């Protein structure tokens, strides 16, 4: 009961903070410390140049809660990624003239906020010769995330081989059962299926087991609906849809293995791999560039969507197995939940898109949501479909160099830092999260993650029993509270409520 109470307190506190901060963001949500210094200095000091790079404190319960959960290594890697990207590389790019920013108040403004600039624009007027720092850093970040996630999976080659054998045995056993039911002899299949050593300790009652027809029927229905929706709504050829589904099946197996072994789902690598394959199918005179990009994104979405849902459901079944939850009851619950989510997820997106139109406006210089994964998807789509890569040369060279370093460090972690040296893994940076912070144009995210990790570290050292008992209750309440609060704020924005103050915000804008 105490855990429920702690969850409720954290939920209500986060909800109230998120809703109240909508009316006073500069006081309750974003602490623009360098803006304060700039104002106190009579709008005549260098603090504005630090503010321009997004260095402020954001008291977001969801991100702070995530930092409490992921631990110091991941949080420190994200903070380091923010410092390297938006505290070192970005300013150097601007200083040397490689990249440039956009004046937020306009080129003709001459007031106290004349130097107020954003370097997070995705303006593609001339991205190769005059990129923004965000566009320049996007390519190293995406390549680093994709390459490191692939290397992480390949480093588990022993478990991959075991999984491949298990899968082959299971397929042969199912095929043999079908042959026996139809009177067809398949001696070699029988021998191969019987040689399988099932090392699981599954003792599920047969009446609660999930029958093959239950998941096969859903699979067939999903394939049919995918083919129809892609073809009718987006004009995607059936052959391309089938290739996307086949890619999704193959890559989903790797995603499930990676999630089970490393608690890391390489969705970026999966989507980008599928996009590269489809990129070869959409090149040529048959498709316009815009159409090719649409089909490419759609194919990647199919692969990433299948992998994401499969890993989530597999993780649910793993928890259910440990808790001895009947599989059939859990399958029915998942079916009901998925049925609701099919309609709820698009509805929530429409609510946020209506409240914050900048989400769908690529030319918007500022937005409440940075949508980093959207930028990564767009970059991969452009790279897979464009006749020439619209990447600045210096960005491409840096992307290759840092990716090589990231892959070598990952390989060293798996093959050198083992046994008695494994304790040193804690001090290696997580290049996946470092690459992520190159894509996320918000240093405050890395700062909030670090704050959460420090809070968790101090809590664990000072009150270890309380930490073990209440950690997940508190952070679950924090994350859920901010999420619901965000929905309420979106509804308030749609309703046209104009109230609050911009005190503490740069130029009165937060």
From TrEMBL:
GO terms of molecular function = oligopeptide transmembrane transporter activity
* Pfam families cross-referenced by the UniProt entry: OPT
Q: Which domain of life is it from?
A: Eukaryota
Q: Give the UniProt entry's GO cellular component terms.
A: fungal-type vacuole membrane
Transmembrane region positions? 31-50, 62-89, 136-155, 213-234, 240-257, 331-356, 397-418, 430-458, 470-494
The membrane topology of this protein is: Multi-pass membrane protein
Kindly report the protein's main subcellular placement as a broad class. membrane
Subcellular locations according to the entry? Membrane
Family, as annotated: Belongs to the oligopeptide OPT transporter family.
Protein name, please?
Answer: Oligopeptide transporter
Q: Which organism is it from?
A: Fusarium falciforme
């Amino acid at each position: 009961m105490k855990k429920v109470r702690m969850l409720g307190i954290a939920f209500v506190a986060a909800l109230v903070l998120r809703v109240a901060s909508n009316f006073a963001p500069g006081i309750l949500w974003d602490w623009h410390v360098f803006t304060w210094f700039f104002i106190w200095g009579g709008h005549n000091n260098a603090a504005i140049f630090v503010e321009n790079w997004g260095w402020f404190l954001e008291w977001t319960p969801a991100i702070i809660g995530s930092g409490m959960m992921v631990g110091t290594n991941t949080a420190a890697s994200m903070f380091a990624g923010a410092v390297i990207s938006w505290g070192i590389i970005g300013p150097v790019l601007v200083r040397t003239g490689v990249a440039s920013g956009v004046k937020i108040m306009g080129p003709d403004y001459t007031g106290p906020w004349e130097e107020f600039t954003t370097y997070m624009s995705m303006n593609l007027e001339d991205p190769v010769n005059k990129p923004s720092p965000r566009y320049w850093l996007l390519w190293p970040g995406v390549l680093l995330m994709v390459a490191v996630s692939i290397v992480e999976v390949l480093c588990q080659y022993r478990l991959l081989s075991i999984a491949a054998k298990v899968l082959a045995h299971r397929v042969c056993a199912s095929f043999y059962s079908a042959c026996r039911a139809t009177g067809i002899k398949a001696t070699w299949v029988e021998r191969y299926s019987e040689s399988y050593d099932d090392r699981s300790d599954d003792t599920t009652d047969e009446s609660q087991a999930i029958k093959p027809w239950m998941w096969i029927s859903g699979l067939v229905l999903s394939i049919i609906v995918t083919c129809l929706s892609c073809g009718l709504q987006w004009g995607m050829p059936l052959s391309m849809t089938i290739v996307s589904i086949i890619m999704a099946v193959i890559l989903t197996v790797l995603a499930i293995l990676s999630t089970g072994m490393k608690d890391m789902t390489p969705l970026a690598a999966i989507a980008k791999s599928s996009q590269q394959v489809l990129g070869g199918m959409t090149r040529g005179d048959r498709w316009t560039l815009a159409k090719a990009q649409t089909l490419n994104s759609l194919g990647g979405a199919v692969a990433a969507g299948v992998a994401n849902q499969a890993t989530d459901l597999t993780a649910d079944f793993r928890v259910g197995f440990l808790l001895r939850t009947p599989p059939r009851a859990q399958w029915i619950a998942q079916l009901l939940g998925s049925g609701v989510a099919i309609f709820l997820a698009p509805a929530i997106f429409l609510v946020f898109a209506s409240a914050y139109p900048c989400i769908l406006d690529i030319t918007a210089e500022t937005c409440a949501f940075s949508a980093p994964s959207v930028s990564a998807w767009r970059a991969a789509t452009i790279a897979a479909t464009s006749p020439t890569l619209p990447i600045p040369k210096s960005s491409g060279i840096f992307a290759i160099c840092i990716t090589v370093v990231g892959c070598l460090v990952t390989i060293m972690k798996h093959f050198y830092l083992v046994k008695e040296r494994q304790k040193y893994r804690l001090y290696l940076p997580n290049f996946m999260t470092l690459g992520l912070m190159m894509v996320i144009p918000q240093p405050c995210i890395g700062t909030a993650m670090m704050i959460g990790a420090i809070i968790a570290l101090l809590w664990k050292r000072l009150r270890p029993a309380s930490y073990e008992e209440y950690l997940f209750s508190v952070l679950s309440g924090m994350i859920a509270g901010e999420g619901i609060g965000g929905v309420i704020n979106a509804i308030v924005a749609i309703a046209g409520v104009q109230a609050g103050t911009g005190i503490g915000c740069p130029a009165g804008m937060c």
